[in-house]
Amino acid sequence: MSRYEGLIDPAILDYVLKTSVHEPDLLARLRRETASHPRVNFQIPPEQGQFLRVLIKMTGARRAIEVGVFTGYSSTSIGMALPPDGKLVACDISEEYTSIARRYWAEAGIADKVDLRLGPAKDTLDALIASGESGSFDFAFIDADKTGYRGYYEQCLTLLRPGGVIALDNMLFSGRAMHPPPGDADSYAISQMNPFIGQDVRVDAMLLPFGDGLTLAVKR
Question: What is the C-alpha to C-alpha distance for residues 153 and 155, in angstroms, rounded to an integer?
Fold first, then answer.
């Protein structure tokens, strides 16, 4: 099933993708390498990678956080858009998955921008807060375990400066966010996050029907 099925007319979507998405060859090769991975659904689509690059440039972000690296499509996209002195703290628990990401960071010439922290993201983010880095980041991308989203959101909000942006992926969760199946903890977690962020007076936010749903929240 297409990620946009039932949301956007296929002909319109095809036109949008053909006329506006320009995927760098390196990212296309990373996407193809990941295509046979059993967790390929963890990877963001090309249009979302491009959107992240545009966001980084629009906001002038220099310091970024990523929660959930997988094989590195989103972190490579972010790293390519950051300025030469930019830094990305990339959080993941898998040496296996991120070993692929490391190869592409090196090939893209951004390995020195990426500070990979292997271990539970909660612990990494808590450590950043404890070390006095609250309010010092410009951008955060959250794309990890869905039951952890509320905690990651709170930690990233603390770490962002006013005007900083949090982007959260999978906020439609293939439509299951509207009607979580019984016993589906991930769907339920997302279904709770959407109204919570929508009513959070600390941010200006919008859920976009883009990819599998992307929420942007700007810290006030």
Answer: 6
